[in-house]
């Protein structure tokens, strides 16, 4: 039996200004103590550590006291805003909110804005009434809201809640008087109500949906001190399959964005979300701003330049869903600058000393920044929040633990491990183990780059890797580990089925699940084009696998196949999940089909089809739930089954294969598109 689903598997303020300032000093000392110790707790988070940390608050307070420009003008705008008042009248809470259809979205977003703005007013002024108002709002919603619904639920959950989490982070770590019980309940609320809506991101949509989900997930991870949640968001930022990951959103070195051909409003929003992720990561010691040769800056420069009235190069491009093709850059919304540029300008120019002329010009044109509109789409107020003098940076400390480890493998060159740069790190140490919890042994030290190839990894063996960072002051804790099986599990192989190996792509197994990237037009044709991850099958054998949501290409076909060989036209029986092309790409009907080629070079026939998939597998025409597939061979008879829970199985149909040759069984994936790949994941893979 081959069983591949491995289950190895707070400043003090007591209505006394002196106590408040004393508390601020204590907070800063606490911040520095954690940073300088480095090893107090493996992979510990820095708090407050979302859009604002302790140094940011101190910097803003000092600038406001000195009436330093442009911060002071930014503060006056912020202070005067109706949602920055301690007399704000809360509009909620509600038990359920939704988007498309809209239910209470404006109510939630207004209260989220007020929670964040009052929390920050508390931190900046020391007036307890602001803290009390912010606490009132957060407590009301965290104790009442039970669900976020609608076709656009994931987008709603990625916008307003981001401000609510930021409010909670400030309140929790500035000794605002927020009770431990309320904090615990709010943690549970973020984990159990908000996080489930965004946990699989939005690979079916334009990229700003994805990036909104990413930043809220990252914020929840920090607030809840949940490293896996934080890492999930970080991994998606650097390597996600959907339109919102960094390299899928800012699609080339010129800075062109996935939504540049849609309109300029959404494009500015999408890159702003990515910027928020980078700022939070920065406060956790990670230089996400610099990832992929400052790709984020390139996206901002491109977008700012075009919206300042200048020409930019544009390449017609298809997005990762396969639904959105834009022949030319859009002029819709051109010149309407959103309040998103101060953050990026101040990081790259005043923190890092780089040039960002168009981002700078955009920031100056709308300074002081107002609130981000509409609703809770983005934060805004960047003139207050981010303005700093040139050459200023946060205090240098022992590096934080690295994060965002990625592992890739080949059948001949071992495993390649990469990670996100740590602020201030001089070198890194890579460690390896065959167990997640160790012990880990040093594989290589004094690594000055952000990548290492392990050429000594044994084929078919699963390894766990971690990395620590060091500078002259000391070393960090170990990173959250990443796992990978070198090459493939023993007796498993990969093949590109189709003319000229057209699907291509990649496949990796991490000891728990397969992640398969493939192009190809599909397997429901005479000329097959798909990636096949396979092993041999006994005369009376079964292959079972569970689909793990979600797919990127919304034209994907995936499932299981039993084949006589690896040639394009070989005998095969396949159980495939694919969309019914009904002329409505936003609302496809997903089906399970049994497809069969009875003889070599013959036509593939559609033997049986299940009903259109519905909840819990499909919601709003999107593959959002787990789904189990099974092909069972008994002699010449092959039967196909599916299940929504892995326990109760529904038979799709059976076919008879007339052959005496060894049969192969495996996983199949195609994107259904000529130029765009898809990413599909399977776990609980069994062949027995």
Overall 3D shape = globular
What is the tally of helical segments?
A: 15
Low-confidence stretches: 5-41
What's the mean pLDDT score? 93
Q: Helical content, roughly? A: 25-40%
- The CATH topology of the domain at 493-687 corresponds to Jelly Rolls
How would you summarize the topology of this molecule?
Layout: E1 2-3, H1 17-37, H2 54-65, H3 71-80, E2 96-98, H4 105-125, H5 128-142, E3 147-149, H6 153-172, H7 180-198, H8 207-223, H9 227-239, H10 246-249, H11 264-283, H12 291-307, E4 317-318, E5 325-326, H13 341-351, H14 357-365, H15 382-386, E6 403-409, E7 415-420, E8 427-433, E9 441-447, E10 451-454, E11 462-471, E12 474-475, E13 482-485, E14 493-498, E15 506-509, E16 513-520, E17 529-537, E18 542-548, E19 557-563, E20 572-580, E21 589-597, E22 605-609, E23 618-619, E24 622-623, E25 627-634, E26 637-643, E27 650-656, E28 663-670, E29 673-687
Parallel strand pairs: 2-3
Antiparallel strand pairs: 1-29, 4-5, 6-7, 7-10, 8-9, 8-11, 11-12, 11-13, 14-17, 15-16, 16-29, 17-28, 18-25, 18-29, 19-20, 19-28, 20-21, 21-22, 23-24, 25-26, 26-27
Helix pairs in contact: 2-4, 4-5, 4-6, 5-6, 6-7, 6-8, 7-8, 8-9, 8-11, 11-12, 12-14, 13-14
Account of the 3D structure:
The protein is α+β, with helices and mostly antiparallel strands. Among the domains are: 403-485, Immunoglobulin-like (Sandwich); 493-687, Jelly Rolls, CATH 2.60.120.200. Helix content is 31%, strand content 25%. The termini are close together.
């Amino acid at each position: 039996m081959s069983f591949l689903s491995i289950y190895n598997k707070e400043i003090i303020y007591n209505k006394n200004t002196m106590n408040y300032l004393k508390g601020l000093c204590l907070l800063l000392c606490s911040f520095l103590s954690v940073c300088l110790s480095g090893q107090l707790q493996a992979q510990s988070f820095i708090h407050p550590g979302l859009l604002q940390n302790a140094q940011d608050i101190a910097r803003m307070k000092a600038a406001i006291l000195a009436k330093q420009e442009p911060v002071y003008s930014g503060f006056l705008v912020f202070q005067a805003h109706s949602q920055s008042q301690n007399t704000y009248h809360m509009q909620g809470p509600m038990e359920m909110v939704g988007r498309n259809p809209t239910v209470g979205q404006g109510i939630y977003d207004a209260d989220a804005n007020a929670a964040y703005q009052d929390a920050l007013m508390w931190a900046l002024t020391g007036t307890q009434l602001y803290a009390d108002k912010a606490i009132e709002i957060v407590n009301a919603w965290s104790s009442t809201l039970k669900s976020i619904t609608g076709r656009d639920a994931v987008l709603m959950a990625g916008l307003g809640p981001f401000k609510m989490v930021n409010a909670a982070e400030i309140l929790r770590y500035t000794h605002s008087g927020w009770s431990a019980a309320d904090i615990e309940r709010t943690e549970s609320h973020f984990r159990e109500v908000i996080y489930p809506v965004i946990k699989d991101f939005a690979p079916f949509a334009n990229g700003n949906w994805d990036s909104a989900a990413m930043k809220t997930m990252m914020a929840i991870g920090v607030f809840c001190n949940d490293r896996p949640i934080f890492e999930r968001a970080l991994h998606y930022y650097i390597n996600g399959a959907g339109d919102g990951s960094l390299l899928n959103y800012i699609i080339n070195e010129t800075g062109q964005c996935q939504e540049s051909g849609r309109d300029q409003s959404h494009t500015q929003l999408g890159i702003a979300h990515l910027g928020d992720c980078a700022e939070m990561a920065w406060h956790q010691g990670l230089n996400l701003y610099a990832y992929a040769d400052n790709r984020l800056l390139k996206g901002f420069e491109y977008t700012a330049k075009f919206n300042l009235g200048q020409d930019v190069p544009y390449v017609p491009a298809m997005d990762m869903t396969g639904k959105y093709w834009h022949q030319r850059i859009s002029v819709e919304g051109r010149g309407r600058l959103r309040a998103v540029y101060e953050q990026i300008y101040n990081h790259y120019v005043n923190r890092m000393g780089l040039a960002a002329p168009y981002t700078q010009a955009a920031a100056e044109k709308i300074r002081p920044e107002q609130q981000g509109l509409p609703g809770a789409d983005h934060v805004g107020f960047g003139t207050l929040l981010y303005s700093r003098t040139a050459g200023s940076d946060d205090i240098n400390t022992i590096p934080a633990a690295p994060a965002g480890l990625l592992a890739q493998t080949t059948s001949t060159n071992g495993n390649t491990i990469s990670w996100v740069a740590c602020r201030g790190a001089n070198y890194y140490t890579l460690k390896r183990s065959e167990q997640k919890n160790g012990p880990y042994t040093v594989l290589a030290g004094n690594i000055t780059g952000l990548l290492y190839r392990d050429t000594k990894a044994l084929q078919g063996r699963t390894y766990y890797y971690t990395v620590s960072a060091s500078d002259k002051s000391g070393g960090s804790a170990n990173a959250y580990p990443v796992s990978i099986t070198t090459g493939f599990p023993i007796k498993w192989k990969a093949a590109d089925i189709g003319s000229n190996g057209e699907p291509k792509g990649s496949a990796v197994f991490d000891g728990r699940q397969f992640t398969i990237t493939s192009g190809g037009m599909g397997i429901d044709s005479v000329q097959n084009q798909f990636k096949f991850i396979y092993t041999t099958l006994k005369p009376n054998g079964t292959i079972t696998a569970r689909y793990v949501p979600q797919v990127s290409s919304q034209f994907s076909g995936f499932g299981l196949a039993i084949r006589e060989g690896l040639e394009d036209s070989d005998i095969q029986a396949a159980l495939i999940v694919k969309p019914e092309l009904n002329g409505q790409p936003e609302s496809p009907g997903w089906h399970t089909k049994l497809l069969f080629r009875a003889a070599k070079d013959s036509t593939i026939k559609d033997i049986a089809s299940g009903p259109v998939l519905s909840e819990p597998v499909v919601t709003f025409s999107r593959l959002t739930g787990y789904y189990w597939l099974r092909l069972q061979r008994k002699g010449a008879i092959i039967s196909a089954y599916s299940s929504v829970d892995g326990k109760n199985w529904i038979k799709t149909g059976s076919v008879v294969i007339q052959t005496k040759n060894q049969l192969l069984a495996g996983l199949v994936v195609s994107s259904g598109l000529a130029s765009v790949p898809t990413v599909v994941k399977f776990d609980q893979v069994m062949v027995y």
